[in-house]
Amino acid sequence: MAHTFLMQAGRWSLQGNWIERNQMPTIVKGGILVAWSRDDWYTMVTKLVFPESELEEIAFQYRGRLDPGEQQYTFVLHHSLLGKVEGEGWIAPDSVIQRYWVLGDERYRRSGFETLYRIHDNKYFLSSGIMSGHYLTSIMEATLERQFE
Domain limits of the chain? Predict the structure, then answer.
């Protein structure tokens, strides 16, 4: 696969819009750090901030494994809004797609999804959402750009 996001270690900036149910869009900015260990485990840390809003920042800490040559993987995630989460991802020719579900959340049945579409090697478009039961509670659309030091 020709993906650079998630498949290679690196730093990414994020800029876009966050929309909660029955609210106007608000600007979201952030950063993503991807690191890989020698045994095919990755760590991804994401921080989102809302500079023009009173929304609290959101942090994600992923840990997953992707064996060489595989197109599907699993991960665990600590999400500052949702708590402990498990998920799965698929690597497609032009996108990376992830879905996740909150552990021990029988009451609200919260889950989420992310689609990262490759525009080119150093730029992706992100579309994501968080659901409660069958209803979207928030969505995000953003552009990710690889940062070079």
Answer: 10-147
